[in-house]
Amino acid sequence: MESFSNFLKEVSSESLYVLNKEIPLIKYVPINLSFKNTELEAVDVSSSIALGHFIYKAIKKQNGRIGFGGYNEKRTIYRRSNHFNSLDVESERNIHLGVDLWCEAESKVYTPLDGTVHSFKNNMNDGDYGPTIILKHLIDGITFYTLYGHLSLKSLYNLALGQKVFQGDCIATLGNSSVNGDYPPHLHFQIIKDMQDFKGDYPGVCSKKDLDFFLENCPDPNLLLKLKIFNTC
């Protein structure tokens, strides 16, 4: 894990962008959706509208344009969906494995690195990714993958397996709650070392009992994004 994380960290000395690079990094502000955030107790997280109001109010309060966060974050918001629930507490999937980037629907999504289209799919379970694209990257002999979830339906049009993409290419736009699994608009961005034969999908939320494996296989996307928390208030 350490060597792969170091490799990702050294892929670029500068921040890599998956959203509009004209938005300065200081306008990316942290959003806390963990079970420890008591402010969420007053929010109906089963409503994408109510959750969106909470998130975008937090972004505005910090004078930001994009909210970010969520890697290795234990959340209660997934209890609204049977897609994540389990009668066994240890098997309940509630720990987030990617970084969420909260911004407007139709925002353009860009590939941070050269690659090819590994797979794509509309994951239509309640609370799932909705339209999803997975890219394959090969750098210095090391293969890994990046996943882009909660996209618009049109993002899947005219894609082809093996299609080449280049750093900075617009590969998708963000979907709204009607297609993205019923969430406020955002990008789920995740790094995956081994796809384990998944195509167009890969777990973005895991249980406590599987956490060690998934943290090993899905290192922190911020190793590429290099987002920082600034004092913006």
Spell out the blueprint of helices and strands.
Blueprint (H helix, E strand, L loop, with lengths): L1 H9 L17 E3 L17 H14 L4 E4 L3 E2 L18 E4 L2 E4 L5 E3 L4 E9 L6 E10 L2 E8 L14 E2 L4 E4 L12 E7 L12 E3 L3 H7 L4 H4 L8
Parallel strand pairs: 1-2
Antiparallel strand pairs: 2-5, 3-4, 4-13, 5-12, 6-11, 7-8, 7-10, 8-9, 9-12
Could you characterize what this model shows?
- By secondary structure, the protein is an alpha+beta fold.
- The chain has helices at residues 2-10, 48-61, 211-217, 222-225, and strands spanning 28-30, 66-69, 73-74, 93-96, 99-102, 108-110, 115-123, 130-139, 142-149, 164-165, 170-173, 186-192, 205-207.
- The protein has one domain: Glucose Permease (Domain IIA), CATH 2.70.70.
- Helices cover 15% and strands 27% of the residues.
- The strands form three sheets. An eight-stranded mixed β-sheet has the order 1-2-5-12-9-8-7-10, covered by helices on one side.
